[in-house]
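Researcher: Here's the sequence for the chain we discussed earlier.
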Amino acid sequence: MDNKQNVGSQDRDRINVNQDHELKHWSEKYGVSHEELKQAVKAVGPMAKDVEEYLKKSKPLTNL
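Model: Thanks. This is the structure I predict for it:
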């Protein structure tokens, strides 16, 4: 039986832009808009380190 209430801990290595709380967290962490974060994930995939590097190259990040 599938128990969707019983979810594991959040994966801090990946960014899920389809989860509002993650979108808010990572946007605040990187100092970008939700749309900028979504575009970065679309460009390089969901791995946080890849997104961070991509955003660093696109614009200076103040929150890192």
